[in-house]
Amino acid sequence: MALGDVVEFKIPAAPILTALAVGKEVRYLRLVRAAERRRHLGLLDTLVGRNATPVGQPTSGETAVAAAVKLRREDLLRALGTLDDSVPEESRTHHGSLTLLWSISRLVSGQSRLVPWHDFKAEIGPLLLEFGGSGTGAAPENPFRHLRSSGLWEVEGADGEGLDSALAAASAESDIAAGLRPEVAKLLKQPLTRAEAIGLLCTTYFQDVDQGALLTRLGLAGYAHASGNAGEEAEDREGTDEAAGRGTRRPVNSSRPDRDLRLVEEIKLLYQQGCQVCGVRLETRFGHYSEAAHIQGLGTPHDGPDKLSNLLCLCPNHHVQFDRLFFFIDEDWNVRRSRDDELISPLKRHPEHVIDEECVEYHRALCGRSRYSLGSD
Fold this sequence. Notes:
Strands 3-5-4 form a 3-stranded antiparallel sheet. Strands 12-13-14 form a 3-stranded antiparallel sheet. It has a two-stranded antiparallel sheet with strand order 1-2. Strand 6 (240-241) and strand 7 form a beta hairpin. It folds into 3 domains: 3-70, no CATH class; 94-157 and 174-223, Arc Repressor Mutant, subunit A (Orthogonal Bundle), CATH 1.10.10; 258-366, no CATH class. It has helices spanning 13-19, 34-49, 61-68, 73-81, 95-108, 117-131, 141-146, 163-169, 182-188, 191-205, 211-217, 261-270, 316-323, 357-366, and strands spanning 9-10, 53-54, 114-116, 153-156, 177-180, 240-241, 246-247, 282-284, 287-289, 291-294, 311-314, 327-329, 334-337, 343-346. The protein has 14 helices and 14 strands. The protein is α+β, with helices and mostly antiparallel strands. 37% of the residues lie in helices and 12% in strands. The protein is elongated and about 75 Å long. Residues 275-330 form the HNH nuclease domain. InterPro entries: DNA-SBD_ScoMcrA, HNH_nuc.
């Protein structure tokens, strides 16, 4: 390579150093594991490679800083999927991933991005005890400070070197706060990106946890079911009327999205009541039975469209498994098991049934199997 091939870039160092969770005065170099080095290189590519301005071109300080911290959707998902790469397996906990999932739940509920240290400690502490992993205890200060190395998190009110002592001495009125970086929060406000992030975090870090209970605890229950909150089953009715010999009854008020029943009949007629996964036509005394499943659920938080291209014709078993995110449809229209990508069968498609690929991508994201989380770009 000739000297003329080298291009000098003028870019503020502060955003890069902040994203890497180091002080603005670099006084030493630290050896890191290969996986952590790869994450840092990816971050530098994000912060510098695509957005830096060559010397000689006009730029303002504010514009350069804004460009320097711009993240893409795939950068965010890559960072979420590699949180533990630099941590020995025996030392890994759910603390960082749980904190990020909790932070996403705050965005969903409209709460502020940054959380004061004392509020953070009060909310995260019980979550760490319940879902942080066996024998790990609750140490909220660990994710509060260590998540900065992910490039997704920031701490305000204390510098890096004095953060530990500042947290220990912080009073209830302390202005130390932490939360997702602004550009991360902005990306996570996009429905598909948010679904991908939640699905990826659950699939990558919480295989040993009751994910339904975790998401419910965080106020994200809709992301545990493809139909959304409206798809949740009614509570089991407890108790019986022993005197009457029958179960008791109680009035229930509910709100569910309207469905166009003509579309339901149309999808069943198109496939002649046959399941698009297994091909079974379930026979009953009065004919055959199948169910129409929305690919991107109509219920909150999914808010999918009620149209034929967002419907599948499934048998009851595969409808339950589809809604419970047991399997997904890949980009080649194969049905695969979510936990290990095992092929189940090709999806059966009628020539007159054009399936909305964006709806399929959304469901795939809920399963933690988006194209970015699977590593393709």
